[in-house]
Amino acid sequence: MAFGSFNEGGGGQPMAEINTTPLVDVMLVLLVIFIITAPIFHQAVPIDLPQVASTKIDEKPEVIQLAVDAEGGLFWNGEAISRTVLDERFAAAAGKQPELHLRADRKVPYEKVADVMAAAQRAQIVKIAFVTQPAQ
């Protein structure tokens, strides 16, 4: 018997038996549940899917590097341009949804940077990134 009585003269020795019956019962129940549910995971409805040959399109958006120097001069991918040409180039590039990477000298008045951003917005260019250098 797993339980000891209080009036035995054992002298208070600890019981050395562990009742493993509840543990075995729980494990058997879990095993039965797993055996029943495991085949359900592998059942699938057979569907004849169409076969299509296609290639992945890796079209990277055009990146426009636009720099504004300390005097307010504009440089489109390293080429000096005027303010009137900027609107034309933005309009020509707008259909491709380009990314505009804007670099501005720290001495440029905010008005010039805001003007460039407004010109990009008028041309429906919405991806604008400000390029900076990390502090040293």
Order of strands in the sheet with most strands: 3-2-1-4-5
Instruction: Tally the beta strands.
Output: 5
Overall shape = elongated
Give the radius of gyration.
37 Å
Question: What sequence of helices (H) and strands (E) makes up the elements?
Answer: HEEEHEHE
Q: Structural class, from helix and strand content?
A: alpha/beta
Largest sheet, strands/sense/barrel: 5 strands, mixed
- Percent of sequence in beta strands: 15-25%
Number of helices: 3
Instruction: Give the mean pLDDT.
Output: 83
- For the terminal residues, how far apart are their CA atoms? 79 Å
CATH topology of the domain at 63-130: Nucleotidyltransferase, domain 5
Low-confidence stretches: none
Helicity range of the residues? Answer: 25-40%
What's the CATH first level of the domain at 63-130?
Alpha Beta
Named at the architecture level, the CATH assignment of the domain at 63-130 is 2-Layer Sandwich
